[in-house]
């Protein structure tokens, strides 16, 4: 494609050389138009080719070394100039790397991952979305001191508090937090069963689904 563009722009100069050599007898009408309004250069950047032919410094050094070794027909080995770094032109090296924001991690993230891996059904329990003015307890004496509903997030925060304040290890804090969590869940289940039995004793009937 680039050769065709270059040939099209060289028509005027080529025809003028033919006229100067008396190889053409008449001047065509389009030549005057091309003289007054020459064609513009292409906006496409053409690839440039050059041949150093051993004129550069590192090529002359490599040739002298090959001739000094006495090898006949030895290939000229091009050395890398000082200050240059050899880079691979493989596809993985030419791939554009986009800037990505740093990953933000909190200490509770690992505790949360471990807890929900061992208690996957805890995510299915309904939660109260009411917030307590964004305040968290500064001191925990037990898991229920977190205020409000006891959920998996309460266990994670309580475990982190035990690790920071009491100096317990990760496993020790996890064991204590889950022990209290199981006791809270057992008490809630017992309260729900007792409430159901009392309602049935007083004649309450379950609502029919529409």
Our Rg estimate from Cα atoms comes to 42 Å
Shape: elongated
Strand content range: under 5%
How would you spell out the order of helices and strands? HHHHHHH
Proportion of residues in helical segments: 40-55%
What is the overall pLDDT average?
76
Task: Count the beta strands.
Answer: 0
Please count the helical segments.
7
Alpha-carbon distance between the termini?
A: 74 Å
- Largest β sheet strand count, sense and barrel closure: none
**Based on helices, strands and strand pairing, what is the structural class?**
mainly alpha
Summary keywords:
210 residues; 0% strand; elongated; mainly alpha
Can you walk me through this structure?
The protein has 210 residues and is an all-alpha fold. 46% of the residues lie in helices and 0% in strands. It contains 7 helices and no strands. The chain has helices at residues 2-9, 11-20, 29-36, 57-68, 107-118, 152-166, 170-201. The protein is elongated and about 125 Å long. The mean pLDDT is 76.
